[in-house]
Design a protein that fits this description.
There is one protein chain. This protein is an all-alpha fold and 304 residues long. The protein has a single domain, classed as Farnesyl Diphosphate Synthase (Orthogonal Bundle), CATH 1.10.600. The chain is built from 15 helices and two strands. Strands 1-2 form a two-stranded antiparallel ribbon. Strand 1 and strand 2 form a beta hairpin. Helix 1 crosses helix 4. The longest helix has 28 residues. The structure holds geranylgeranyl diphosphate.
């Protein structure tokens, strides 16, 4: 896995070490929860593991862990929440790459799921990863109050569904070749990318005070959008080998993006403003919010 390189200016455990530890942890949690490829149906289980393991920056899991540490409540339920969000994310990438959606052959530096296996398997992989996410988060032994656990399930379900990620994807598919206003583009990305990013942070903050939860919500709203603006910029500026997915895909698919709408310079300014908004939301919390700030920095400075 590629490491997240961000200089540590404040002493203590640097961000890279913090992130690598948690990336290794989420990899282990996912590995333990995904069915073995030796169990029938072997091909489906093999394809689920292929799509969900050993790849990706694990930004959503890191957000979940950082928010839990911010609220000083990191526990077994945080691992379950982080895994559930990463599984929903993995499912969305598998389906997004299929010929009926974005039709991409490369994901995380490897052939996308439907290329490595076939379309029917990829469809089932997405379905099964989504179900597994909810299975993990609904386990009865997570040491949570029932109401709290239902709230977590509700957060994840809403963020994934037609008024969240799936709805954003529907708007995205219907927007190809059409000019969108900045407000329309923002609504689409709040749903498609932002909703799950916000859910990741809110699940981590499930035991936080109302002030902490409000700050995390505001932070994640801004950083979720910043994530997408940077994604649009990288699609133009980065190369396929660095991204691990096809660069220049937005332009070749005639998709409206922040770069086509605002131009590269203003898209970068917009990302910087969203980063500032995210940091401002954490202002009252001093060093307790350090990891959230560092993650905001990573998300907006990343090169892949
Ligand atoms: C199919 C319901 C459904 C939804 C798909 C998330 C999504 C919606 C499509 C992915 C297309 C895309 C490239 C969106 C841009 C933002 C994004 C989610 C990028 C990929 O996330 P990263 O960079 O990926 O966190 P890794 O591989 O690091 O996990």
């Amino acid at each position: 896995m590629r490491s997240l390189k961000v200089a540590d200016a404040t002493g203590g455990q640097d961000f890279s070490t913090w992130a690598l530890t948690r990336q290794a942890r989420i990899e282990q949690v996912l590995d333990q929860n995904l069915p073995s490829a030796n169990i029938a149906p072997q091909q489906l289980h093999s394809a689920m593991r292929y799509s969900a393991l050993a790849g990706g920056k694990r930004v959503r899991a890191l957000l979940c862990y950082a928010a839990a540490e911010f609220c000083e409540t990191h526990n077994i339920a945080t691992d379950a929440a982080a895994a559930a969000v990463e599984l929903i994310h993995a499912y969305s990438l598998v389906h997004d790459d299929m010929p009926c959606m974005d039709d991409d052959n490369l994901r995380r530096g490897k052939p996308s799921c439907h290329k490595q296996y076939d379309d029917a398997t990829a469809l089932l992989v997405g379905d099964a990863l989504q179900s597994l996410a909810f299975e993990i988060l609904s386990q009865p032994d997570l040491c949570l109050q029932a109401g709290e656990q239902i709230s977590m399930l509700n957060i994840l379900a809403k963020a994934s569904g037609s008024t969240g990620m799936a709805g954003g994807q529907a708007i995205d598919l219907s927007a190809v070749g059409k000019p969108l206003t900045q407000t329309e583009l923002e609504t689409m990305h709040h749903l498609k990318t932002g909703a799950l990013i916000q859910a990741a942070a809110l699940l981590g903050a499930i035991n936080g005070s109302s002030e902490q939860v409000a700050a995390v919500r505001n932070y994640a709203l801004n950083i979720g959008l910043a994530f997408q603006v940077i994604d649009d910029i990288l699609d133009v500026e980065a190369v396929t080998s660095t991204l691990g997915k096809t660069a220049g895909k937005d332009a070749s698919s005639n998709k409206p993006t922040y770069v086509t709408l605002l131009g590269l310079k203003h898209a970068k300014q917009h990302a910087a403003q969203l980063y500032e908004n995210a940091i401002a939301a954490l202002a009252p919390f001093g060093d307790n919010a350090r990891r959230l700030r560092e993650l905001a920095n990573f998300i907006t400075q990343r090169s892949f």
